[in-house]
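Dear colleagues,

As part of the handover before I leave the project, I'm documenting each prediction I ran so the next person doesn't have to rerun anything. This entry is a single chain, and its sequence is reproduced below.
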Amino acid sequence: MEEMIDMMKELMREIKEIRNDQAKYLKEVKQIREEQAECKDFPEYAEAETVQKFLEEKIGVKTKLNEIQHVGVGKEGRKTVRATVENMESKRLIMKNKKKLKESEYNIDDLTDAEQKIEKKLREIGKIEEKESP
């Protein structure tokens, strides 16, 4: 009988911890949503026309887009949008003309998700090694 009481106490303690963790998680989600609401580069759910207009004005490439994904929020509250173009010729033109954005806050990347993760990890390792070296 005493074992049952101890088990119940342990379960109640675990439930309390889970509720605390859940409250923290919900607070973080709320904060992230507020940060996303403050983003300024693209509207919350940019339509293809918005990204097409951006590509045409900033890079000089007129193309149709197959898909747009809102990836997240980067530094200084800028949104990251991933767009898939309709054909390889359009992609080639965009990649060729992306140097027009060199001096601006925009970035066009041609890496896959896996390559982006590797690149991020390498940057993190580089920062750590830079701090450790005299």
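The radius of gyration is 23 Å. The first strand starts at residue 65 and ends at 73.

All the best with the project,
I.
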